[in-house]
Design brief:
By secondary structure, this protein is an alpha+beta fold. It has helices at residues 34-43, 97-111, 163-166, 169-182, and strands at residues 18-19, 22-23, 59-61, 67-69, 87-89, 92-94, 116-127, 130-131, 137-138, 141-151, 154-160, 186-189. The protein folds into 2 domains: 22-69, no CATH class; 87-189, Trna Endonuclease, Chain: A, domain 1 (3-Layer(aba) Sandwich), CATH 3.40.1350. It is 23% helix and 28% strand. The strands form 5 sheets. A 4-stranded mixed beta sheet has the order 7-10-11-12. Strands 1-2 form a two-stranded antiparallel sheet. The protein has a two-stranded antiparallel ribbon with strand order 3-4.
């Protein structure tokens, strides 16, 4: 190992850009920390230059001495696959507003005595749980109907579907299995 020729701490004259093969940083412009850089990339807002001196700075030191943002704009939510809006009414959660409005319609029909035994999210077993030859278990396959009710003594199964979801292969297969296994035709509500 060679001995340093310059005393430590090394003093570099102002305006020097290179010392040997090393590049000298410009002290006039503070560098961004990783957290600041990520925030800058996400929001496009550059960090303040005197971040540690400004009491109203949005980038403050946390308990660990790291710079963290006081507020980060929430990430944009990815839209639902079929552009539905989940909603809730009196503690009942619905996958779409169309499903919720159909629920209101069915409640009115039940109140008028046209239907009875109205239920939602009813599960039907399509294939039972079975054990494979190697000892592992294959899960049961189920179909969950949006609504079931009895009209004129017959069980009616309804599912609220958009044009796109009606073309879903998994749904089509389960709809066919419902007819084969239980003899029930799923009524699709548009």
């Amino acid at each position: 190992m060679t001995k340093r020729s310059a005393p430590w701490p090394m003093v570099v004259p102002v305006g020097t850009t290179m010392v040997g093969t090393a590049r000298v940083r410009d002290d006039g412009r503070p560098t961004m920390t990783t957290a600041q850089r990520r925030i800058y990339e996400k929001t496009g807002n550059p960090p303040q230059t005197a971040a540690l001196d400004d009491p109203l700075d949005p980038f403050a030191l946390n308990a660990h001495g790291c710079i963290t943002p006081a507020h980060i704009a929430p990430a944009k939510k990815k839209p639902a696959k079929y552009r539905n809006t989940k909603c809730e009414h009196q503690g009942i959660k619905f996958d779409s507003q169309r499903e919720r409005s159909h629920w209101f319609h069915l409640i009115q029909q039940q109140a008028a005595g046209l239907i009875s035994d109205l239920r939602l999210q009813v599960s039907f077993v399509l294939t039972e749980r079975k054990q494979r030859d190697d000892g592992t278990w294959e899960r049961a396959s189920k179909y969950v109907a949006d609504f079931t009710y009895v009209r004129d003594g017959k069980l009616v199964v309804e599912d609220v579907k958009s044009e796109a979801t009606r073309k879903n292969r998994a749904y089509i297969q389960k709809r066919k299995q419902m007819l084969d296994k239980h003899g029930i035709t799923v009524k699709e509500i548009k």
